[in-house]
Design a protein that fits this description.
Domain HTH arsR-type: 1-97
Strand content: 5-15%
Largest sheet: 2 strands, antiparallel
Helix content: 55-70%
GO molecular function: DNA binding; DNA-binding transcription factor activity
Keywords: DNA-binding, Transcription, Transcription regulation
CATH topology: Arc Repressor Mutant, subunit A
Pfam families: HTH_5
Protein name: Transcriptional regulator, ArsR family
Number of domains: 1
Strand order of the largest sheet: 1-2
Radius of gyration: 14 Å
Length: 122
């Protein structure tokens, strides 16, 4: 349990959990939405996977991450607390707005890599 709380004690990982509670995403999508690097996203995802907070599925050449159902079942009160917290904090709400903008843009992993397109003005 100590490892889980250390994992959840990082704001970048909480931001990823926030996005993944709403949508399955690949590394390149989180990279764009969170305005960070691929290596940073991958490192944090590895930590979340090591604690079974998230899981993944491979579709063609892309790997999509999501919240692990077992994590939600085993730690439902903790997950509910995190959701309530994220629903109140402006940073996490801003991330969800960017997620919504991304999903509305029609972009996907393939087109992001092809165009290396910036979706957001800021």
């Amino acid at each position: 349990m100590d490892g889980l709380f250390k994992t959840l004690g990082d704001q970048n990982r909480l931001r990823m959990i926030n996005l993944l509670r709403k949508s399955k995403l690949c590394v390149c999508e989180m990279e764009v939405i969170l305005n960070t690097t691929q290596s940073n996203v991958s490192r944090h995802l590895a930590r979340l996977r090591s604690e079974n907070v998230i899981t993944y599925e491979k579709k063609a050449q892309w790997i999509y991450y999501s919240i692990h159902e077992d994590f939600i079942k085993k730690h439902h009160l903790l997950f509910k607390y995190l959701e309530d917290f994220m629903d109140q904090e402006p940073l996490y709400q801003d991330d969800l707005k960017r997620l919504q903008e991304y999903e509305s843009s029609g972009e996907n992993c393939e087109t992001l890599k092809r165009h290396e397109k910036k979706i957001f003005a800021s």
